[in-house]
């Protein structure tokens, strides 16, 4: 049987990993949005 402290450490580690995944997904979404915005401006300015 595990002691409560080990369980708490495990839960904290899982939450940290989930937070890192959420941040990575958010950044990837922002990068895609930025790339699409740049493509849009290229089309407007006639560079594409």
Task: Please provide a written account of the structure.
The chain has 1 helix and no strands. The chain is an all-alpha fold. The chain has one domain. The model has no long low-confidence stretch (mean pLDDT 90).
The rough form would be described as rod-shaped
Distance, first to last CA: 64 Å
How many structural units, i.e. domains?
Answer: 1
- Our Rg estimate from Cα atoms comes to 21 Å
Short synopsis of the structure:
The protein has one helix spanning 4-45. It is mostly helical and 48 residues long. The protein has one domain (1-48).
What key attributes describe this structure?
48 residues; mainly alpha; 1 helix; 0% strand; rod-shaped
Helix/strand layout:
Blueprint: H1 4-45
């Amino acid at each position: 049987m595990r002691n409560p402290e080990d369980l708490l450490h495990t839960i904290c580690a899982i939450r940290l990993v989930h937070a890192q995944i959420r941040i990575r997904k958010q950044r990837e979404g922002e990068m895609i949005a930025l790339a699409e915005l740049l493509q849009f401006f290229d089309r407007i300015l006639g560079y594409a």
